[in-house]
Amino acid sequence: MVRAMGTKGLCMQIMIPDVSTRRGRRGHRLARQPAQTIKQTCSDARRMRIAPRQERRAWVESRRSFTPLFSSPDMLEKCNYFYMRRMAYVCSRLGGGIMKRYLLTLAFAVALLTCLLPRMAEQAVYGNIVGTVTDASGGAVPRAKVTITDMDRQVVNNAEANADGYYLQRSLIAGRYRVRVEAPGFKIYQQEGVNVSVDSEVRVDARLEVGDVTQTVEVTAEAGVIKTERSDVATTYQASTIAAMPLVGRRFTQLLVYAPGNATPTNGLAISGEGAGQQPGSNVVVNGQRNSGSGYMLDGTDHHDAILSIIVFQPTLESLAETKVTTNSYDAEIGNAGAAVVSAQTKSGTNTIHGSLFEYLRNSNQQARSPFAQSTLIPNSNRAIPVSQWNQFGGSLGGAIIKNKLFYFGDYQMTRCNVGGSTIARVPTQQERSGNLAGLGPTRRIFDPLTGTGTPASRLEFPNQQIPLSRLMGPGGIQAQNLLKSIPLPNLPGAVLDQPNFVGSGASKETQQQYNYRIDYFVSEKLHLFGRHSGADFDLNAPGIFGPIGGGRGFDAAGGIGGNSVLAFNEHISIAGGGDYAVSPTLFTDFRFGFFRYKVTQRPTTGGTKAAEKAGIPGLNNDEFSSHMPGFRIEDYSFLSGEHLFKFGNSLITSCNCPLDQNEKQMQFVNNWTKVSGNHTIKVGADIRRAFNIRAPSDRGRAGELLFQAPRTQGPTSSNTVGGGSGLATFLLGDVTQLQRYVGGTVRDNLRERQNRWFFFAQDTWKITRKLTFNYGVRWEIYKPQTVNGAGNGGNVDIDTGEVYTLGVGAYDRSGNIRNDYKMFAPRVGLAYQLDSKTAIRAGYGRGFSMGTFGSIFGHSVTQNLPVLASQTLLGLNNFDAAFNLGQGPGAVLNPRTVLSGQPLGPKGLPILPDRQTMFVVKDKMRLPRIDSWNFTVQRQLTSTSAIEVGYVANIGTWVYPSGPDYDMNQPSIVGFGSLSQAERKPWYVRPCATCPALANATHRANFPGGRLGWTQNFR
């Protein structure tokens, strides 16, 4: 147990668990003592560890009084030396026990900050009011009394101007405030309607007039909208702005693209994977950096999924007091991000009861028709556009339980969507299903792969481009015919060759429930506590265009729901609590606890059908996780340069990463302190996080992704122009040219990763003059290597030797012996100069680190490897051969635990990565993307509520992740070579790794210089 002492001059006390005997877990209270008795106290503590219980108790009782300690710097140094040596000794004696080690590490970190850095701060969940008190001649008025009152809650805060007339009031929740300044011999100065935002300073300068103290000067002008105390580049959206903006689906992250320098990603993460959490529109590219470089916070606690780098869930608009998007030069307190930090703050209740009820309706009555997918009427309907309807309804209520003391706020939102859409596709015609492929044209003449020697040079052409009935009804062919029974016939008349001939119309159904409730308790003028609990449940049923058996991709639709074919059930939770305490007029602290759970469950729409087994294909539907229709991809290289002729089933090729199970949790402990000393505001803090994750994906499908390519039915090489073959012919013959599937590593295997993340910062805000503010600080980020929850529950590849090693086995610990990087220091520097009452000039520089994406350092990179999960690939001996026939199936299911058996050993005596196996590779040292950014900005106030700013922003990203992590130095495209392995076809690839490893490490650089033009408008 760690407890900071409130009396000035005392350091702290720590309860250290007694693990030396088995008679219980009594604690020793190791207290700070005067410098001259420290050595004896430490000696007594060591002796008391093994003393009888009664003697220990008496010794503890005798140490209950404390005396001032920090009378000189040497005493502090001696205290640190002896105390930390004692902590190191106890740590070494604790030995095993993950939770004990974790709690002791937390205690040690807080002890280090409390003893070594007694001047500390909070910022992420509160705002500040600063200013200078002067007389009519501009001279400072020292010791003026400043009273700041929350106008909605009547909570009073008192501050005092220092010798230079400067005052600061911290720990203000977002809202409207009244500032009242009093000094003997002067009239009272009072200004109302001062709006305070989170993570910002509002400047209110008071110019006092000589007069009777009973007289009051009311100032009606609002506080300026220009930023004079900070150098960060940020955009703040207050509750009134959020309510006024037209946000489709009421998703607040759509506000992100309105901030200068932000844009929607061009890759699929623009909608963040609909089934994987229902977070459409939550990703942005900030100042040219990858979307994975951004972080999300809710009430000062982390709200960020490390796998997809998206928000855990989007809070309701009714619950938001404000949102701040910081894109450059943020304070040292903010980190775990390199591009942008999105901070959202929830509402608190007020003395007056306020509530809302709402219902939003959108439908397809005024929706425009797609000229491609909706050119004809839907069968059995007089409509060309499927019926769509969005209903969002709910309400909020906030007020006071005890006026001026205890406040509540809560809200609820229900969303019910029935989103219609239409998707066009190419499906085989009745003529093609009967084996007559003459309609494919002369460039796709088909040849029998079983004639001659099997190579194209000696194959015989099928007469009249007709596959005989005996082959269609033979092994492989009959299975293909059975599969085609689940695929509808063309319904678009007049379609020409290679053009879509089928349109499917239907609807995706989604239900969302979101709730949020918060309590604020102003115990006294010094102490404020809060707690919040938020949750979001999502259910999505997005069928495929070919129905419950054929599957296929989902229906394209507006509104961010269409396109996927998946059943999703997601349950997310976010909890935050904490408070702030004024130890003295110049010393403040805040503490927070955060917890979130990001839980995603996805299942294929064809799950449980065992469609492959019923079609007569063995070895694909092997268990409940592979009981769905496999993904089938029929290609034709003459068809739009390799586009799929048609595809069906359930897998990533039909936009379904399913089945997928993910349950990510994170605990977070934050303690920050602030010390105001003259014109310096010194901030120091610690942020300790513990993350847990289980993720069982299906990137290659559990039932498999089957590929059918044209070279299998290609003619003589010299006649390619007239004998290119056809992927459809290959499919009708039942010849699979490639199979990929995930085997093992399901949610039943309970493969979990854990990771510790420790962040520390120190920063000083120096008010050099009334107009010039200098911010400087440093942040230290430590990301411990992820560990698995049991020996053998993960694997990695030695990139130098190509050997596979198992985590927790032999010479490798459960992290794979990955080394830490303790040099991730992030300096932050900024200047803000107030040129005049309406103009501010700012400049800043900062460095940030981000965790990357797709499990780069946490989440799935080691638990999706051998020997727990295999990415199996089956190929033919050459480009013209078949991997297997549908009639025979792929053979026995691969067992990931035995794949490495019998493999040749490398130089370290470990098995070499087998051919046709793909693994994630985590290098032997932690290395995260690093982004250095800087800005120069000039801001000018135009009216009392608006301002314009122009500036230069730039950044350089080092060790950032490329657009795709696959690493392949020499992709083979050689025809033939008989039985040579894929590794042997790579003569210039010097490592013995058999296939392309997915390198889960940052390797690239990126830079972005740009201008920034922004307009700030405050809404009353």
Descriptive terms for the model:
disordered N terminus; elongated; Immunoglobulin-like; 17-stranded antiparallel beta sheet; 39% strand; 1020 residues; 51 strands; mainly beta
What's this, in brief?
This protein has 1020 residues and is mostly beta strands. Helices cover 10% and strands 39% of the residues.
Strand content: 35-45%
Fraction in helix: under 10%
Quaternary status: single chain
Secondary-structure-based class equals: mainly beta
Low-confidence stretches: 1-39, 63-122, 268-277, 558-562, 637-642, 964-996
Give a short account of the largest sheet.
17 strands, antiparallel
The tally of strands reads 51
Task: Give me the Rg, rounded.
Answer: 33 Å
Provide a count of the helices: 11
Inertia-based shape: elongated
Arithmetic mean pLDDT: 79
End-to-end CA span: 47 Å
Describe the model.
With 1020 residues, the protein is mostly beta strands. Among the domains are: 115 residues, no CATH class; 103 residues, Carboxypeptidase-like, regulatory domain (Immunoglobulin-like, Sandwich), CATH 2.60.40; 222 residues, no CATH class. The chain contains eleven helices and 51 strands. The protein has a 17-stranded antiparallel β-sheet that branches. A hairpin with a 2-residue loop joins strand 16 and strand 17. Helix 3 packs antiparallel against helix 4. The longest helix is centred in the N-terminal third of the chain and has 22 residues. The protein is elongated and about 110 Å long. It starts with a strand and ends with a strand.
